[in-house]
Input
Amino acid sequence: MAKIIGGVASTHVPAIGKAIADRKQNDPYWKPFFSGFDYVHDWLAREKADVAVVFYNDHGLNFFLDKLPTFAVGAAKEYRNEDEGWGIPVSRAVAGDPDLSWHLINALVADEFDITVCQDMLVDHAVTIPLTLMWPGQAWPIRIVPVSINTVQHPLPSIARCLKLGRSVGRALESYPHDSRVLVIGTGGLSHQLDGERAGFINKAFDKLCMDAIVNDPDALTRYSIPELVELAGAQGVELLNWVAMRGALTGAVTQAHRNYHIPISNTAAATMVLDNQPMAQRRAA
Ligand code: DHB
Ligand code: FE
Output
């Protein structure tokens, strides 16, 4: 059976790609952020994931405002990146895992999630930047199943709905009859707003509340409506939905292994978290 080893949450700010290309990791501006990944690298080297389910939001590379599914799941052998206009290098392609994709797709539809299935899918900076941060300078040693959540064009799915989506994915992973070690990734956030009167908005107190709740009580976040989330986290801070879905997929006993929070990276409160997941069956056996 598959084992859900844990979760990683990471910002996906494109400027990080430029900092990496320019080798600025040790510059004073960037060091507090990049050094937050030292723990992640050790953890990944120890935990050796085979495959990652990546909850993220597409920003207009694969979907645009004319057709934007609330939830979409990739079922491709490979996912390519293309130039999005950020002035960062185009990433290498990421290997897919069609067998796991179809397992998740069947389970989600059986669980009454009306998802869009993408057998051809480009992945944008919201996938490639976190992978580059997690496995810098190397061929990515994992396959992925991308799950895109609409955080871009309202109406957005509620926090409760995204938590349920994650939990449905988690149950499906538990029933996957292969010995894969599965990592769950949530990208984006935390508080940020890129445009309008509140451009540059960051809310440190709310970010802390969200990070604490992501570890110990994700259901507590369901009290916020999407308009309240926009108010508290900024128009793009709604990318928290990806973190919520990631947390939902961790079906065991969850503990925080690592947290880094740094303000600002570009316009964003950059937060990194690693969560350990102790599967229930193992807990019973222990
Ligand atoms: C920034 C943040 C994002 O989430 C994004 O998708 C693009 C840019 C930023 O802070 O620059
Ligand atoms: Fe974003």
Remarks:
- The chain has a mean pLDDT of 97.
- The pocket of fe (iii) ion (ligand 2) is lined by residues 12, 59, 126, 188, 236, 239 (CB under 6 Å).
